[in-house]
Amino acid sequence: MQRRLTWIPRILAILYILLISMFALDAFTGKPDLGEQIKAFGMHLIPSFLTVLCLVVAWQYRIVGGVLFLILGLAFTIYFGTYHSTYTFLLISLPLLVTGILFMVSKISDRT
Hints:
The protein is mainly α. The protein has one domain. Helix content is 82%, strand content 0%. Helix 1 runs antiparallel to helix 5 and helix 4 runs antiparallel to helix 5. The longest helix is centred in the C-terminal third of the chain and has 26 residues, at 86-111.
């Protein structure tokens, strides 16, 4: 069971990063030139980069990483306004909050 508690939040975070990174691909639609599209693509990937940073920290320091995931989940809720829609909250914010809790639970269960 302990092994699962260690890997579930990591896998969840990786899947989440892949999901939100796919949203960045919409930067390549429309009429802007390639330079503008690449710039927009980079901007759309900022949430993915932040999540990767949290995952790197959480991989080594699960409590600190869990807190970072919780903060990121709250920041996404406020910044992206996911509290306005249940669906967007479930898709964007909730996975970060659950991942943060799971990272902390996995570390706490190591101690017992």
